[in-house]
Amino acid sequence: MATDVAAKPKFGEINKYDFHTDSKAVFKARKGLDADIVRQISDMKNEPAWMRDFRLRSLEIFNAKPMPRWGGAIDLDFQDIYYYLKPADRQGKTWDEVPDEIKKTFDRLGIPEAEKKFLAGVKAQFESEVIYGSLKEDLTKQGVIFTDTDTAIREYPDLVREYFATIIPPADNKFAALNSAVWSGGSFIYVPKGVKIEFPLQAYFRINAENMGQFERTLIIVDEGAEVHYVEGCTAPMYSTESLHSAVVEIIVKKHARCRYTTIQNWANNIYNLVTKRAMAYGDSLVEWVDGNLGSRLTMKYPSVYMMEPGARAEILSVAFASAGQHQDAGAKAVHCAPHTSSRIVSKSISKNGGRASYRGLVKIERGAKKSKSNVVCDALILDPRSRSDTYPYIELEEQDVMVGHEASVSRIGEEQLFYLTSRGLTEAEASTMIVSGFIEPLVKELPMEYAVEMNRLIALQMEGTVG
Amino acid sequence: MSDSETLKIKDLHVSTTEGKEILRGVNLEIKRGEVHALMGPNGSGKSTLGYAIMGHPGYEVTQGSITLGDQDVLEMEPNERARAGIFLAFQRPMAIPGVKMADFLRHAATNVRRPDRKEGEELIPMREFRKELNQKMDQLRMDKEFARRYVNDGFSGGEMKRAEILQLAMLRPKFAILDETDSGLDVDAVRLASQSIADIGGKDMGILIITHHEHLLEHNRPDFTHVILGGRIVETGGPELALELHKQGYDRIRAAYPEAAAADAALKQTEPAGAH
Known about the structure:
The structure holds 2 protein chains of 2 kinds. Chain A is α/β, with parallel strands linked by helices. Chain A contains 13 helices and 23 strands. In chain A, helix 2 (35-44) packs antiparallel against helix 3 (49-64) and helix 7 (149-155) packs across helix 8 (157-163). Chain A is globular and about 65 Å long. Chain B has 2 domains: 1-6 and 28-87 and 215-262, P-loop containing nucleotide triphosphate hydrolases (Rossmann fold), CATH 3.40.50; 93-172, no CATH class. In chain B, helix 6 (187-201) links the parallel strand 7 (175-179) and strand 8. In chain B, the strands form 2 sheets. Chain B has a 6-stranded mixed sheet, sandwiched between helices. In chain B, helix 5 (157-171) runs parallel beside helix 6. Chain B is globular and about 55 Å long. By secondary structure, chain B is an alpha/beta fold. The A-B interface holds A 414-417, 419-430, 434-435, 437-442, 460 and B 54-58, 77-79, 81-83, 87-88, 90, 93-94, 96-99, 103-104, 107-109, 111-112, 119-120, 150-151, 167, 171.
């Protein structure tokens, strides 16, 4: 356990400290991307043939697909990236087994503390492999599986194979294809029928090696009547050259089941964060995405819910904070494929110091999805004249008998609001931070307590030097 | 009270940032423990005086001075004025969505009580603060739920005014300017407000009450009543003057000060009534 808990910086100060722990990678694939690298990754993992073939097929799709021509500008040399790095030979089952160097990094991220307080199972992804995991015994007894995806392929091959890449096939988009070819790590969760997990399952993700792409692959299956809340938080230290994070998250939520997926991401300013997240919601189920995006050079992320059967519901809450040199192209997709389905999208964006925040969202109501309802609210807060906010709402209706609403607002921090707060003794910086915190309160109040505290710290950090 | 406890306004001229002159030479001296009533028709410059004392960025002082003891108030930022002990109860308080009253008040109270506090330094301990806040809300007969609501967000007119009084109670300033704190309240609520202000103020607070009505003065008998017209204080009297104006309006004043009345009329031609 950590001995210098008191001395470690607070979670939100990580960017400032810009630390980098020297990690001794046991295996590091050479830079670049080709069939040999992909085969090597698969061999290292002792994967079954179907997975190796899947990877190779995905690589072909990746090579064939053009770069997306929308969203943000991507300036990446795919041959100048490491695609696989394995820091330790095996996963640590207990904290004592985790290498000291890696512990040091986790201490700085506050992981042990988080675990002490309310974690049931921690899965921490350090570079490409999940190296530390714990899961409460009673969960195992109830048949809940919470492991990394590599392990799941070895131990639950039939379950994984049944659902893997069924929600997001490699051909979905160029970066989903890339992830499918070189993926490593990520969480696998299976919650059996009727099992309701009352505490959030958590995972920490982190990129460490320079030029190291991180391509985790998460698959969550929530069986009929089951409930789970999965939480992930990400931070990354600063590096001077480009880094790529491209994850795929697939969720299946069966009849009467519920799944909430909460993400807070705070990437270093040179990272491309290009993520595909999608859920399939069946009869009377509920899928909730809570998505907070800070940092990165460019984030393109649109958590999606396909409502496949009557009564399915989607709630998507997305918050983006774009500062200098950052472009947050974030939003949501709600696709209504069955009658009596409903979706609600709330998007909040903040841009400052020349940052750009875009909302890009799709609401689609398929033919036959009668009596479906969708409501979208987009609020943008622009902190200075150099910053920018755009809204790209796409609405496709193939059915008449539906209710679809869209509201958008753009505001600046008002002089009157600032005066009111400063007249009560707050400095202008405190007042601005308070107004921004209030603006994202709808997200923060949905977070587990510790994340709410972190989120407020991150916002305060982002707001430093905004005034004057 | 010593001179260091006096708020002095001398020959104050104030224009909007668009260049329109609203105050044309206001003189006023408030000692701690005194109650002053400021009365005048709509648009005569009452709220502007409050804003100018607090440092609203939309108003520019073009001439004159405001001092608190030997401190030059005009050199201070609004937050420094608050920390020096000046408080303005807003006629129209601003909503700050997502910010809880309790969080806002804890920040404000900490800064005002510890004027040297730097950003990021510790706030008043939560338990201590909660206890005090609950006590103050009890005294004002406010529901505890109030502390958890977002600052002025979706408040009724009456709730906003009560929230301003709660802030007054928590911040305990040396000088308070109450800008129509009675508007939007029913008669009973005004009585409660009036009593509360008297309790909070005690003998230590200098109070400037801007009002159209006499109710707020019920428990806050003014030591001085000032009449403002056309951007100038034209007449000062005792409590009987407040009563007279309330009963008979401003016709006598207008007749007695034709130059100020003309200036007042000119101000109103370009500005909708009640805007300042």
